[in-house]
Specification:
Elements (H helix, E strand, L loop, with lengths): L26 E3 L10 E3 L20 H5 L3
Length: 70
């Protein structure tokens, strides 16, 4: 899954952090296929100012699990 700068196509897909009130804007996808916290996140909601420069990006909740595998 690559970083994206658009909202998810499937509006029924869970996205962003709980309580998010942002209705649009740039988003990034978590590369964990089993992400339970939302597959897509607004940059602002995960403290990003621009698209991540790394090839893979994991949301804050998934990051600890994948950091151990590296």
């Amino acid at each position: 899954q690559q970083q994206q700068q658009q909202q998810p196509q499937d509006q029924d897909e869970q996205f962003c952090v709980p309580g998010c009130k942002i209705a649009g804007g740039d988003m990034v996808g978590c590369d964990n296929d089993d992400c339970r916290n939302g597959a897509w996140f607004h940059y602002e909601c995960v403290n990003l100012k621009a698209a991540p420069s790394s090839k893979e990006w994991y949301c804050p909740a998934c990051r600890p699990s994948f950091a151990k595998k590296r």
